[in-house]
Amino acid sequence: MLRRAVETDVPRIREIRDGVRENILSDPSRVTAADIAWFLNNGPIWVWQEPDGTVAGFSAGDPRDGWIWALFVAPGCEGKGIGRALLKAACDRLLEAGHKVATLSAEPGTRAERHYRAAGWTATGFSERGEIVFQKSL
Q: Tell me, which fold does domain 2-98 have in CATH?
């Protein structure tokens, strides 16, 4: 089930973010408690909640600039369509905020890169950190 995240989801959101096998956050200080709080209130952050109540993934689109701020699925929960549902929710929010194009980045050679290419996202260059920048019309 897709729903908006609430404050009590934050520990699980951090657990998922810190537990990924790809797109590992090399500098954890880049994602602050203030960032998460802002997205809880304004993003929003979307979570996928399994029938047993476990949060299996989360996403957020930044309505200020049209970037997908986060899209992560917990290890072991991949391949179930959770990421697609979360990405759609984040993109829908960007469209609602007036953006015509969504932008995100992914490390080269990852499942994320293959997923975005297969889903019709277009590579437009590289970020300062060497990630591939993708865009897709909303």
A: Aminopeptidase (3.40.630)
